[in-house]
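Case study.
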Amino acid sequence: MTANQENVGILHTAKLNLEQTAFRLKMPDRMLNRLLEPKEKIELTLNPTLTDGRTIQVKAFIVKHRDSIGPAKGGIRMSSSVTMDDVQGLSMEMTWKTSLIGVPFGGGKSGIQFDPSSINAQDKETIIRSFTRGAMKHIGPEIYVPAPDMGTNETDMGHIRDCLAYSWGQSITNGCYVTGKPIILGGIVGRKEATGRGVAYTVLAACKKLGIDIKQVRVAVQGFGNVGSVAAAELATFGAKLVAVSDVTGGIINKDGIDIKQLFKHFKENGSLVSYPSANQCTNEEVLTCDCDILVPAATQSVITSDIAVKTKAKIVAEGANSPTLPDADEILAKKNVFIIPDILCNAGGVFVSYLEYTQETQREQMTLEQVNKRLNDRMNAKFEQVFDSSQGKKLTMRQAAMDIAVNRVVEATNALGALP
Ligand code: NAD
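After joint prediction, the assembly is written out as follows.
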């Protein structure tokens, strides 16, 4: 797939999903038109000077889709191919995700158009600080609270927090300005692993509902970053067998199973997944279509095209990534009776634990890892149950049921706020 197709896909998919939901909910056009557009779109031009002396130009985007239920919440994506449209589509998804998982936030997202793997750590910090200075008036506990997403991590969130505090000449412990920070800076234990762990919890819940023994399942995971690597490790602890995994450089496959601990060790020592010796190399497409029971797309958007959907053998697709399935592919998978755990449910563990970080910081409390994981597990299971029951009762797909619940809450909140005179 070309980068262009990916970019068209994400906003298009988000709008189409909303339009179909609006139709099912018999939503008035004026409400649909309101929800189709974001409240605010900001484009920044950054001019950071890198360690080699070059001053470069970098585009960055912030979109706040809705804040009816609370301040905009959503990660910062750093990638050479991220566009304003991607960020708009992702911010809309965040509105539904925060609503569905039941946290008092709205939807937002940021993008920094630069490939983080092409620069050293100091230059990345410079770009992150440059973004923060430009974005400063759009960030705050009651405005927009960023977090890590593809290409950014907890180190970057620490730099954002420092840049905000430095610029204002004060400590910013009066509220939560950014989540996914290092624990020493007010971050919460278990946030880094929360999204991948939440993915695994929903897979386990789906297996129980469908009468599948997790110890007998073969799993394929696309993406070996924050979400994919943790989901793979967590599923392995439940007894599932990892048979294929990939990252942007390619994939590896072994039908007899890939030892996740050995793989982590190899990845840490060599910085490469594809050179892992106890498996065969393969393409990303082969990972998506391999002989497996559960497929976890946990890399990027629009990877499950109609071609892939026709070929995929998985019984369950657990959407670790945001918007990995194109609308045509979604229909094909539904016809094949593939059970999809939709992104706004499957990967909502990250934003749920971000909410715990937000409340912990606001109340100056400290939670233990056991408390965080228990609350994450309870919430993921409760929401899975709610979406599953609704899908069964109303004869909807899991995505349709999740969207109906999420959008309905946002409509209710928007109506409860009333209209400006
Ligand atoms: P990451 O940057 O930590 O890892 C991304 C992984 O995907 C890397 O292994 C990378 O090599 C791989 N990848 C990138 N492009 C690829 C491609 N075209 N083909 C195959 N592999 C590719 O990012 P992450 O935080 O793990 O995020 C992954 C997905 O999960 C994204 O869609 C993100 O929006 C979503 N997500 C992340 C979080 C979070 O808390 N980090 C929360 C919710 C959703």
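Observations recorded in class. Residues 75, 148-151, 195, 222-228, 246-248, 284, 298-300, 320-322, 347, 350 surround nicotinamide-adenine-dinucleotide (CB under 6 Å). Residues 369-394 form the longest helix (26 residues). We will return to this complex in the next lecture.
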